[in-house]
Specification:
heterotrimer; A mainly alpha (266); B alpha/beta (284); C alpha/beta (274); A: 266 residues; mainly alpha; two-stranded antiparallel ribbon; 3% strand; C: alpha/beta; Rossmann fold; 11 helices
Chain lengths: 266, 284, 274
């Protein structure tokens, strides 16, 4: 479980860490749009440099991006193969025996790879520098307009933040139940299909029954401390936009405008 | 010796900046047919030690001999199943491992995994349930529908039914009421006396340890601080202080009486035995 | 008038067996009351009924002049706080300070005022150095202290501890019991503690023994423990001092002291006198 780096919060201090989560969320959307629009390598280079600067400011190592990217390599190789087989435009780049590989096949795949890399970098920038609770607050703020159509933005945010809070607890619990079942002779790695099903059941059923018990007790605890769903509450964390937040959004906006223009002029 | 640790170390998050040596050069021989307690503060490495007994964790350094199985650091193990059959591990809050549709099925789950024939597994399950005091009328009930104390018993029956030679218990009485706790402990004391099972109990309850466990191992920061007779440990005030152990009231009383010149044998571990010995020394 | 009046309350979860069966008692303001009984005796149900977490169908509970019912529930919740058994399942915030803030947010305390209040109550339970800690990095005892801080910050007049120490290690148990004892010194705070811990009962003012949903005994802890046979009858533990008295009683040695030291002195006198 510890190898999972994608989406992990890195609790250090940096310029990017200190930005308002809402600014970062807005930035995320603008930048993702910016990554999807251009078709020229120069535009990608410019966007890439901007993101690299942000990564540097956030003190995120390139290692983390590479690790997040790793699981997708197989998929991308497969895409490369499909593209080579299906795309027959551009010029012949090289031939394997009688099979010709066209330039567009390779370039198309490279585009996808670059876009994916940039996307991962942007998302990592957000998740690695924003503590999950602040992120929830940011999401809640963004969902607020939907309250007009009676979307329970606050309740959803509360649910997400509680889910985040309980992830470590549930991982620990999963490990414990797995160990207990291993001691009873369950083999989680090998075995016939029927054995595998019973192994999974022996983990899932207790996990659910504990989760429900926790949920009931948590509900009691929340109620006892005066929580009423849907009622007005004040907030301990108050989000505040600073000059840097506006500057950050402005820069992201510039990048997006640039990428739109690149479609016409580059 | 059924269990023997040889210079064993275990490191959590090895190769990470926050690596942490949970067990540090452990050398320990557990006696056969004896109830041994493992005590120490939270985080002293007790649970890590226990998980090694079932090869749930494998040593980073040193080795471990359990019955006829040898686990050596860095060597791949092939005998996990037979080892886990012979060493029954009852986890903390073991009631959370129940999952089958009926109690009897759940208890038979372990024996079936360890290769007992279905009829044999059911027979063993029924016997184990009887032993822990679960009435036959409950056999076909869902294990999720009984009380917490009963669940704990069913979980324990699930281990006993596998007929282990060694039984390891991690905080078996945590969260139970005092009466329930007493019943669980006497169950294991009986298994030890009648069937000569080797029993290891991880516990915070020093009173229980003093009353029922012949030997005690004290762990602190992953190291063994003491291993020997329980009565010797608790008779030594210096050691109790050094290991930050609470003195059970029975020990307090016994030590006070000995200080005043009463003669009390080291075998006197319950208030009844102490009263009997002291009564012989006063005139009524 | 007593602060809490429980009058002939009966409650059943499934309609077949009464978990609480015609229970009546009063609790005075500022007192520290322990409720004991083995698992299934109805003690946790009783705590939930007082806190309004279960609906009262028969009998009534009056707190500070107001009856506990659907209508008054918000007002009554304001007056009481509960510390539950499982330290993990009541930790709502993602850090210590967020968890203490949770109740304040519900109570509509202004954002600017929160940091000072959080600081004050974290300090009160000895956790000011842990404000930014996440629950997985805290011990059970520390988590329970966070829960207590979160509740105290809301200024309740009644604190209910529902087996709050039963899942803790000896160190955690000791810490929480000590904290409860300190809180009981405050005349504005009434404590109701559901417990198995005999030593804790001894530090309370009043003890209610429940058995099969009914009141079995009710009185000062010393008085309750003076009848060990009665407690034994319903499978309850008795304090070590009483166990000692009983064990020596079998040999016709009648010890009169209320502590071990006194008993040892008595035994010495027995030896030298005769």
């Amino acid at each position: 479980m510890n190898n999972l780096v994608f989406g992990k919060y890195i609790p250090i201090d940096s310029l990017i860490h200190r930005l308002d989560p809402r600014a970062k969320l807005i930035g995320l959307f603008l930048m993702i749009a910016a990554v999807f629009i251009p078709k020229s390598w120069i535009a990608f280079l410019v966007i890439g440099v901007m993101i690299a600067i942000a990564l540097l400011l956030a003190k995120i190592g390139i290692k983390m991006i590479v690790q997040s990217f790793k699981p997708m390599i197989v998929m991308l190789l497969f895409l490369m193969l499909i593209n080579s087989l299906s795309i027959k435009t551009g010029y012949v780049l090289f031939s394997i025996g009688t099979f010709d590989v066209y330039s567009d096949a390779i370039f198309n795949t490279l585009f996808v790879i670059v876009r994916l890399l940039l996307m991962i970098s942007i998302t990592t920038l957000l998740t690695a520098t924003t503590n999950p609770l602040d992120l929830t607050l940011g999401i809640e703020w963004m969902l607020k307009p939907l309250q007009v159509v009676h979307f329970p933005a606050h309740e959803v945010a509360m649910m997400v933040s509680i889910a985040l809070r309980f992830i470590p607890t549930i991982i620990e619990e999963t490990m414990r139940i797995m160990n207990a079942q291993k001691s009873r002779g369950v083999d989680f790695e090998n075995g016939k299909l029927s054995e595998k099903i019973s192994a999974i059941l022996s983990l899932i059923v207790p996990l659910f029954s504990v989760a429900f018990e926790r949920a009931y007790e948590l509900a009691d605890a929340m109620e006892a401390r005066g929580y009423v769903p849907g009622a007005q509450r004040t907030r301990y964390h108050v989000l505040k936009f600073n000059f840097l937040d506006y500057l950050f959004i402005f820069i992201c906006l510039l990048v997006m405008v640039f990428s739109i223009l690149s479609r016409f002029y580059l | 010796m059924p269990i023997s640790f040889k210079s064993l170390s275990y490191i959590y998050n090895k190769d990470m900046p926050y690596a942490h040596k949970a067990l540090d050069n452990i050398n320990l021989d557990i006696k056969e047919g004896v109830i041994t307690a493992i005590i120490g503060e939270t985080g002293s490495g007790k649970s890590t030690l226990v998980e090694h007994l079932n090869a749930l964790l494998l040593p980073d350094e040193g080795s471990l001999q359990i019955l006829d199985y040898e686990i050596v650091a860095g060597v791949k193990q092939k005998f996990l199943k037979p080892l886990r059959k012979d060493v029954g591990l009852v986890f903390q809050f073991s009631e959370y491992q129940l999952f089958e549709e009926t109690i009897i099925k759940d208890v038979a789950f372990g024996p079936l995994n360890f290769g007992f024939a279905p009829e044999e597994a059911i027979k063993r399950a029924a016997e184990a349930l009887k032993l822990v005091g679960i009435d036959q009328s409950l056999f076909e009930v869902s294990p999720l529908e009984i009380s917490g104390g009963q669940k704990r018993r069913v979980a324990i029956a699930g281990i006993i039914a596998c007929d282990p030679k060694i039984i390891v218990l991690d905080e078996p009485t945590a969260g139970l009421d005092p009466q329930g706790a007493k019943e669980i402990i006497s169950l294991f004391v009986n298994l030890n006396r009648k069937l000569n099972k080797t029993i290891i109990i991880v516990s915070h309850d020093n009173e229980m340890v003093y009353n029922y466990c012949e030997e005690t191992v004290v762990l602190s920061h992953g190291k063994i601080m003491y291993h020997g007779k329980t009565t010797d440990l608790f008779a030594d005030k210096e050691k109790l202080k050094e290991f930050n152990l609470l003195e059970p009231q029975i020990v307090e009383l016994k030590n006070m009486l000995i200080e005043k010149g009463f003669k009390i044998s080291s075998e006197a571990r319950t208030i009844e035995m102490i009263a009997k010995e002291v009564a012989g020394q006063v005139k009524r | 008038m007593s602060l809490i009046e429980v009058k002939d309350v009966t409650f059943s979860y499934n309609g077949t067996r009464n978990a609480v069966d015609g229970v009546s008692f009063d609790i005075e303001k500022g007192s520290y009351v322990t409720i004991i009984g083995h698992n299934g005796s109805g003690k946790s149900t009783m705590a939930k009924l007082i806190a309004g977490l279960l609906p009262i169908k028969k009998g009534k509970i009056v707190i500070d002049g107001d009856e506990v019912n659907e209508e008054n529930i918000a007002m009554i919740r304001n007056k009481l706080g509960i510390v539950f058994q499982n330290p993990d399942n009541q930790f709502i915030g993602s850090t210590v300070k967020d968890d203490i803030a949770f109740g304040l947010e519900n109570k509509m305390v202004e954002s600017e005022k929160m940091p000072a209040i959080i600081e004050e109550y974290a300090n009160k339970v000895g956790l000011s150095a842990f404000l930014n800690y996440e629950p997985q990095n805290l011990s059970g005892g520390q988590k329970q202290r966070v829960a207590i801080a979160g509740i105290l910050a809301m200024h309740p007049s009644i604190l209910i501890f529902d087996e709050a120490t039963s899942m803790l290690d000896p160190k955690g148990k000791k810490e929480i019991k000590q904290l409860m004892y300190e809180l009981s010194g405050d005349d504005e705070i009434t404590i109701i503690s559901i417990t198995h811990d005999i030593e804790e009962v001894l530090q309370s003012d009043d003890c209610i023994v429940l058995n099969k949903g009914k009141i079995f005994m009710h009185g000062k802890p010393e008085a309750v423990f003076k009848e060990p046979e009665k407690l034994r009858e319903i499978d309850l533990d008795i304090p070590f001092v009483e166990q000692t008295r009983e064990a020596f009683g079998k040999y016709k040695i009648r010890l009169k002291s209320d502590d071990l030291k006194g008993m040892v002195d008595e035994l010495c006198r027995y030896r030298s006198n005769h």
